[in-house]
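Subject: for your reference before the review

Hello V.,

The reviewers asked for a structural picture of the protein, and I figured it would be easier to keep everything in one thread rather than splitting it across files. Below is the amino acid sequence we used in the manuscript, unchanged from the supplementary table.
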Amino acid sequence: MDMKRSLAAAAMAALSTFSLAGSVFLTGHDPDFHAQLGGNAVGAQHINQRAISYIMDAAFNPYAAGGATKFLFVESSITPPGGHTDGEAGIIASGYTAGVNYERHSAADLNAELNLLGFKYGGIVVASDFGGILTQAELDILNARKGDIVGFINSGGGLYAMAEGNGGAHLTPNGGHFQFLPFVTVAVTLDQSETGFTTTAFGQSLGLTDGDINGNASHNIFTSYGTLNVVDRDAAGDVMSVAGRGLVPEPASLLALGSALLLLRRKQK
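And here is what came back from the structure prediction:
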């Protein structure tokens, strides 16, 4: 009985490392590109606006409520290769002002800026790697700082990340797409025209319409996304965007919880 109680306590201790999370919005669209280029700039601008408003909503983001109203925009400083553009231009076209609403940082100083999450920044916005110019250098730093990013989200911060899949000029050839969030797997890189895409009821609750998500191009779909809600789907029913507020499991916590529950189950047999 004492062993069972000890194992149950270990499981509860693992669960206690989870706290109320902030907000996450992930998309296979690249509205940083299409907010200024493409057939439906207004729709892409709406995606950016709805996503950034969602992750920076002071009613759910204590950092934004406390005055950290800027977001950290992560993108390289390379000259955009063919098929890409400077994604910051799409952020500006969506109504955000550098130095006021956000700061842009590349691999050169990204580690230092990530140390300021929750102090200077209430959220992170990650550029696309096809359309925008996120490179492997930035992605590797984000992935290496996974624990810090998850901790930031679990304490109320927000994160919005756009399409990743190494398309176009192949700026992220070593992969690791979206792996700064451990529960997300991008199973398929899929470049397609946005025709016949549909928003879910949840997506509509965020203020998005079918008109916003059609008319440009998209570059990946999601097949695993934890407990996040589906925002929109492509014509084949594949998941294009997900978002949600809730608990983001940290890898170490998941391991501790899983081990404790496995031992408890064995002892009960």
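For the response letter, the relevant points are probably these. The longest strand covers residues 239-245. The chain is about 35% helix and 20% strand.

Happy to draft the paragraph if you're swamped.

O.
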